[in-house]
Structure formats: C-alpha cells, structure tokens
Amino acid sequence: MKFSKGLLQMKHIDNIPSTPGKFKMEKSPYIHRLRWHSSLAKLTLWSFVFLGLIYFFFYRSPSSFSPRPTDLSRRSLRTNFYGGPAWEKQVRSSARVRSRNGISVLVTGAAGFVGTHVSAALKRRGDGVLGLDSFNDYYDPSLKRARQALLERSGIYIVDGDINDVSLLKKLFDIVAFTHVMHLAAQAGVRYALENPSSYVHSNIAGLVSVLEVCKSVNPQPSIVWASSSSVYGLNTKVPFSERDRTDQPASLYAATKKAGEEIAHTYNHIYGLSLTGLRFFTVYGPWGRPDMAYFFFTRDILKGKSITIFEAANHGTVARDFTYIDDIVKGCLAALDTAEKSTGSGGKKKGPAQLRVYNLGNTSPVPVSDLVSILERLLKVKAKRLIMKLPRNGDVQFTHANISLAKRELGYKPTTDLQTGLKKFVRWYLSYYGNGKRSVQ
Ligand SMILES: O=C(O)[C@H]1O[C@H](OP(=O)(O)OP(=O)(O)OC[C@H]2O[C@@H](n3ccc(=O)[nH]c3=O)[C@H](O)[C@@H]2O)[C@H](O)[C@@H](O)[C@@H]1O
C-alpha cells in the first residue's frame, strides 16, 4: 500500500515538467543558456534532496531495526523497542513452567489461529508459554488482537515482533532457556501467493531460517516443531497422501515455500543437530479461525446474502478437502512436542544424530466443498447463492486426503471431530463473535 502511494507520488512528480518550456526556441541564446543552466542547477539540487530523503528514510531511520524487513509492500517499517525490567518480568512470568515435567515453549504466530489454540492448551497443562507475533494485516488484525486478549487472560504474553528479527529472538532466549519452539508463524493461504509472493519468502523461508539460526546457536538448543502443509503434496494423484510420497510438484508458491522449509529443516538437523518435527496440516478449521479460508468467508457471505463461488474441476469433477478440526490438530501438536527428542548440538556444533520427523495431521475423510456449503446452509438456516466456477489455476489443488497411520503410530494422533460437528462449533463461535453487531466482519 505504502509503496503504491509512493509510486503515485513519483508519477505525479514525473508529470510536472521540471523545466517548463525547455525546448521552446528563446529569443536570445544567452538568456536560453542562462535559464538552461539555472534549471539544471535546480534539477541537480532537487535530485540531491530527493536522494537524501530516500537515504534517510530507508537506511538511517530508526525503523530500519536490524534486520530490515524485505517485504516492504505490506508490512510496516515499524520499530519495536524491547527490554527493560518490566518487559523481561512479563516474558519470564509467561514462560514459567507451573507443572512437574512441564516444558517451556516459545510459540511463534501465537496470535494466529493454530497458535492461539496451541498456546492455550499448553498453558492449561502447566507448561510455560511465551508468544511471538507480528500482528501483520494479512487478515483483520483486530481478530488477532482479540485472540491475544484471550490468551492474556490466562497469563500468556505475546511479544509484538517479527521472526526475522534475530536480535529479538536472541534476547528472548537470553531471558528464557526455552526447551521447545512451536514455530507456527507463517504466511498462510494458497491463493494470496499470486498477489504478494514476497511475503511468502519473507515469512516461510527467511523467517524460518532466522528462527533456526537462533535455535542452533543457543545453549541448550531447543527442540522444534513447526507447521508444514498438506499443500506439499501438490499435484499428486495417488491418495491418501502418505509421508513417503513425492513432494516435488507444488501447485503454488505457498506450497513451494513449505516444501523448501522441509528441506531447510533437513539441513539444520544435519549440520547442527537440531531436533525438528514438521507437521503437514490439512485445511484446519474451527472457532477463532482464519477469515481468508473458504469455510469462514462462505459463512460471512451466506449470512450477508452475497453469492459464493464454489470451484469444480474439469468435467464437473469434485473439489474436496480433508478438513481437520482445530482440537484434533492441537492434540497432534502437543503430542509432537511431547515426543520430540532433545537437540544434540551445543555451541552451534552437532554432537550426534538428532531427530528429524514429518507427519500428516489430517482427518482422513475428504469432503466435497459443495457438501461443506450444504452443512453451512443447514447450520445457518440460510440458503447460499451458489456460483459454480471452474477451478482457476491459482494454486488450488483438486483434493487432499491424509494417510495418518504414521502420526497414529508415533504420536497417538486420532482425530475425533467430523466436519458437521466441527462446523457447528465454528458457527456457534462465529455468531457469538460477530453476531451481536458490535464487530464488523472484514
Ligand atoms: O491444508 C493446507 O495445508 C492448507 O489449507 C488451507 O488451504 P485450502 O485447503 O486451499 O483451504 P481454503 O482456502 O479454505 O479452501 C478450501 C476449499 O474451498 C475451495 N474454494 C476456495 C475459495 C472459493 O472461493 N471457492 C472454493 O470453492 C478451494 O478450492 C478448496 O478446495 C489453508 O488456507 C492453507 O494455509 C493450508 O496450508
């Protein structure tokens, strides 16, 4: 946004001729030269002023807190100053373990959908939890702030910062020797990658590397569980998707960055002995969910009487998802944390082989998107205005279906919520959150 405004201003400057009448024949060539020289001087002066301003704003301003965000198009160049005894006390208190054998977890993306639920569940068990979130505006930040308020009530503090801010991450580890990192901060969404590709690189690649860089250098190294995605299966046609299947044909940049994350995890495990577990989430839904997801905005639009677009594949083929309820996902996340072995490195050096795992966390029962809409119609008691559209080539795949036998065997993962039951809980939350008219649905 800021960038386009800047571009607009630049266009505006370009449209005003800096030397009006420059090419008109003057009566006196002397006067012409004089004017030309003074115009040239003015132009040079203004160019210096303009360049100086650019230098000041982009390089010298205090907002270029290290490292500088690479995604200037959406995220603000914002400065957050951390520190001070009161701030450190808050951090320490939030991360304090309150149960025997409890773990202390840094949850990145704690104000996100999955992050909020996982943080709350860890805190309920007596684990120490500190959140980190950039509160970016990919979707309505007020929903993130409401989740933050919810967590604050149970004593969870969320630091407002970016995972690319290595000095902040180091500071957090200086204050608390986290045993685990639950890394959920990411640029989510499949279709948005067409609009803002750099945000995926910023969060899912650069951000992941900065988290791993800090984790590998601290002592003791934490164990890391992080969010991969079912989208890594890309254009695969063999179902259900098993962890052993190929993942080298992503259909979206989002999927490609998650796949890259899995390879990056391999590298940090191999070189530094970091214990790493990637969880391939399958279309997670539920209360406090993400407004950019179909089940969420279908609900909003059905209630508003607006038409919704339902994708279908070629030859009226069904588009389906292995929709997975948030509580099942939370159980999978906690089980992954609980079964994570310790990292083996210290002082940035590997001391022995470390655990490297990847699990599917799905529901194992794909549901066509048109059935999802029928369930919503029944729950909302409103008929949807359906527009059927051919699946655009925007990153979406036709179907997903998880084979969860590995997670079942090794994590004791067993999803128990079907789509009908899960959506009922979502709709109840949705109506209580937005339904009283106090909040606008964005
Ligand atoms: O499983 C995953 O790994 C991914 O799940 C979701 O991605 P997606 O399954 O595409 O979820 P939605 O965007 O909510 O779409 C659900 C279904 O609705 C369909 N859809 C979406 C939008 C629309 O207007 N119409 C429509 O029919 C999509 O094609 C898809 O089949 C999340 O958005 C990703 O962040 C996540 O990583």
UniProtKB/TrEMBL annotation:
What topology in the membrane does the UniProt record assign? Multi-pass membrane protein
- Principal localization? Golgi
In what residue span(s) does the NAD-dependent epimerase/dehydratase domain sit?
105-342
Which sequence ranges are marked TM in the entry? 40-59
> What EC designation does it have?
5.1.3.6
Q: What single Pfam family name could you report for this chain, choosing any that match?
A: Epimerase
Is Cytoplasm set as a keyword in this record?
Answer: no
Enzyme kind, highest EC tier: isomerase
The record's keywords, sorted A to Z, are:
Isomerase, Membrane, NAD, Transmembrane, Transmembrane helix
**One cellular component (GO) term of this entry:** Golgi cisterna membrane
The protein's annotated catalytic reaction(s) are:
UDP-alpha-D-glucuronate = UDP-alpha-D-galacturonate
Its subcellular locations are:
Golgi apparatus, Golgi stack membrane
One MF term from GO for this chain? UDP-glucuronate 4-epimerase activity
Query: What highest taxon heads this organism's lineage?
Result: Eukaryota
Provide the assembly information: Homodimer.
> Which family is this sequence assigned to?
Belongs to the NAD(P)-dependent epimerase/dehydratase family.
Identification of the protein by name: UDP-glucuronate 4-epimerase
Organism expressing this protein natively: Ilex paraguariensis
User: Lineage in the entry?
Assistant: Eukaryota, Viridiplantae, Streptophyta, Embryophyta, Tracheophyta
